[in-house]
C-alpha cells in the first residue's frame, strides 16, 4: 500500500535548509504565484511552435529559441526516433567510460567541418560546454575578462576555476584594452556572438585585435548566433570573419538546432587536451542518442539549405519594422531576439501578463538579468512565424505600452 505523501514540516530544520527557504528569491516566487504574475515555469503541453499549447490554451509563442523551426521538422524528429530504436533511450554512462557512441563522434566531425576547424567536443548541454571550457582553461592566478552581460554558464565556470573575474563594459573592447593593459596576468576574454537578452552582436574583429595585443585567448559563445547570423549560419564569427581566429567557439544545440546539448569547437590539439582534462565532460552522462541524432540532422538541413537563415532574417526585419511603425523602439540588433525596454520590474511583469491575457507568450527580463529599472520584453522570432502573427504581436505590444502608460522610447512610465 502506498504511503500518503507528506513533507517534513514538523521536523527541526537544519540551518542550511532554513537559509534555503529564507532566500528573498524564494519569497518573490511565492508572492508571484499568489498574485498570478509569475511568468516562469509555465506548463507547456505541446511541441514548441508558433502556436503552442500552454496551461490549457493555444498561445502565440514569441518566447521560444526554436529559431529555424527545426525542433518540429519531421526529418529531425525521424532521426531522433531512429536513433532511439538503434542505440536505446540513453547511454547510461559518461563518454570516458561506456557512453562514447559512434554517433557522438559523427556529430563532432560534422561540427568541426561546418566551422572549418580541426577539432570539436560535444557536451550534454551548452551550459556544460561553457562550464567545462572555463574551468579547464583557467587557474587560480588567471584572469577571466568577461562582458558585463555574459551568460551565467561562463560566470559559473570562472567561479569553478577559482580564477579572478574581471568585467568590462558591454560590447566595449576599448574598456577591455584599458583594463588588460594594467593587469597583465594570463587569461582569456569571453564574449557572445549574439547576446541573449538584448539580441545585439559583439564587435568580434575589434575584440580579436585587443586579445592579440594583450595576449588573451578569445572565446566566442555562439549559442544564439548559430543558425541566425552569417550567410551560412555560423554566427557572428562568420559575419565578422573570425571563424579561424577565435581560439574557441562554443555553441548549443537547444536553439537553432532544435535539440539539447552543446559543443566546443577549435584546434584539434587543444580539443584533445580538453577531452582528458574537463571535469564537466568526464564525469557526466553522455547525450542521449535521440538528442545527438536530432542535432546532427538539423545541422545537415542547415548546411543543405542556408536559405533558412535568410528566411529568419526576413521575419526579424518584418517584426522590427512593425514595432517601429506602431511607435515602439526595439533595441538595436539584427539577430532573432527583438527586445523592447519597459522599465521597472513590476511594469515589465505587468506587460508580460497583459500579453499573456491576449494569448501571446513573450519573455520578461528583469533584474538581475538586466540592470535595475531596465526591464525588457524579449521577443524571439521563429522562421515559421507567419506575417499575420508578426502584426498581431506588434499590435499587442503597442496596446500594452498604451494601457500601462509606458514610454514608447523605453524609459519607463510616461511622465504625468
TrEMBL record:
The reply on keyword Transferase is yes
Please indicate which superkingdom the organism of origin belongs to.
Bacteria
Q: List the molecular function annotations (GO) for this entry.
A: transaminase activity
Q: To which protein family does this belong?
A: Belongs to the class-II pyridoxal-phosphate-dependent aminotransferase family.
Species, as recorded: Corallococcus caeni
- Keyword Transferase recorded: yes
SUPFAM superfamilies attached here?
PLP-dependent transferases
Domain called Aminotransferase class I/classII large: residue spans: 58-395
Q: Keywords assigned by UniProt?
A: Aminotransferase, Pyridoxal phosphate, Transferase
Mind telling me what this protein is named? Pyridoxal phosphate-dependent aminotransferase family protein
Please name one Pfam family that this protein belongs to: Aminotran_1_2
Requisite cofactors: pyridoxal 5'-phosphate
Q: Which residues form the signal peptide?
A: none
Query: InterPro entries of this UniProt entry?
Result: Aminotrans_II_pyridoxalP_BS (IPR001917), Aminotransferase_I/II_large (IPR004839), AON_synthase_class-II (IPR050087), PyrdxlP-dep_Trfase (IPR015424), PyrdxlP-dep_Trfase_major (IPR015421), PyrdxlP-dep_Trfase_small (IPR015422)
Amino acid at each position: 500500500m502506498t504511503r500518503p505523501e507528506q513533507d517534513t514540516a514538523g521536523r527541526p530544520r537544519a540551518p542550511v535548509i532554513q537559509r534555503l527557504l529564507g532566500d528573498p528569491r524564494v519569497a518573490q516566487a511565492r508572492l508571484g504565484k499568489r498574485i498570478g504574475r509569475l511568468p516562469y515555469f509555465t506548463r507547456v503541453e505541446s511541441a514548441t511552435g508558433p502556436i503552442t499549447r500552454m496551461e490549457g490554451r493555444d498561445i502565440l509563442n514569441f518566447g521560444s529559441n526554436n529559431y529555424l523551426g527545426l525542433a518540429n521538422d519531421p526529418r529531425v524528429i525521424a532521426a531522433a526516433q531512429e536513433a532511439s530504436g538503434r542505440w536505446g533511450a540513453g547511454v547510461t554512462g559518461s563518454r570516458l567510460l561506456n557512453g562514447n557512441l559512434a554517433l557522438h563522434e559523427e556529430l563532432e566531425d560534422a561540427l568541426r567541418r561546418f566551422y572549418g576547424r580541426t577539432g570539436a567536443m560535444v557536451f550534454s548541454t551548452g551550459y556544460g560546454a561553457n562550464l567545462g571550457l572555463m574551468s579547464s582553461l583557467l587557474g587560480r592566478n588567471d584572469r577571466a575578462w568577461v562582458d558585463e552581460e555574459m551568460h551565467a554558464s561562463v560566470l559559473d565556470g570562472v567561479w569553478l576555476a577559482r580564477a579572478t573575474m574581471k568585467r568590462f563594459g558591454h560590447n566595449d573592447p576599448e574598456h577591455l584594452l584599458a583594463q588588460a593593459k594594467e593587469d597583465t596576468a594570463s587569461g582569456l576574454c569571453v564574449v557572445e556572438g549574439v547576446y541573449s537578452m538584448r539580441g545585439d552582436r559583439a564587435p568580434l574583429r575589434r575584440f580579436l585585435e585587443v586579445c592579440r595585443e594583450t595576449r588573451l585567448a578569445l572565446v566566442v559563445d555562439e549559442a544564439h548566433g548559430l543558425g541566425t547570423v552569417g550567410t551560412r549560419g555560423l554566427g557572428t564569427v562568420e559575419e565578422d570573419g573570425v571563424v579561424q581566429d577565435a581560439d574557441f567557439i562554443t555553441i548549443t544545440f537547444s536553439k537553432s538546432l532544435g535539440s539539447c546539448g552543446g559543443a566546443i569547437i577549435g584546434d584539434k590539439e587543444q580539443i584533445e587536451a580538453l577531452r582528458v582534462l574537463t571535469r564537466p565532460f568526464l564525469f557526466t552522462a553522455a547525450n542521449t542518442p535521440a538528442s545527438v541524432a536530432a542535432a546532427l540532422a538539423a545541422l545537415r538541413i542547415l548546411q543543405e539549405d542556408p536559405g533558412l537563415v535568410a528566411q529568419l532574417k526576413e521575419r526579424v526585419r518584418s517584426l522590427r519594422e512593425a514595432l517601429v511603425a506602431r511607435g515602439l523602439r526595439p533595441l538595436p540588433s539584427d539577430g532573432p531576439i527583438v527586445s523592447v525596454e519597459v522599465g521597472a520590474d513590476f511594469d515589465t511583469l505587468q506587460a508580460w501578463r497583459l500579453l499573456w491575457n491576449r494569448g501571446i507568450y513573450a519573455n520578461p527580463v528583469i533584474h538581475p538579468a538586466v540592470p535595475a529599472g531596465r526591464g525588457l520584453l524579449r521577443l524571439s522570432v521563429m522562421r515559421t512565424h507567419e506575417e499575420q502573427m508578426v502584426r498581431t504581436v506588434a499590435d499587442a505590444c503597442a496596446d500594452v505600452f498604451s494601457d500601462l502608460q509606458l514610454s514608447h522610447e523605453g524609459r519607463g512610465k510616461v511622465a504625468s
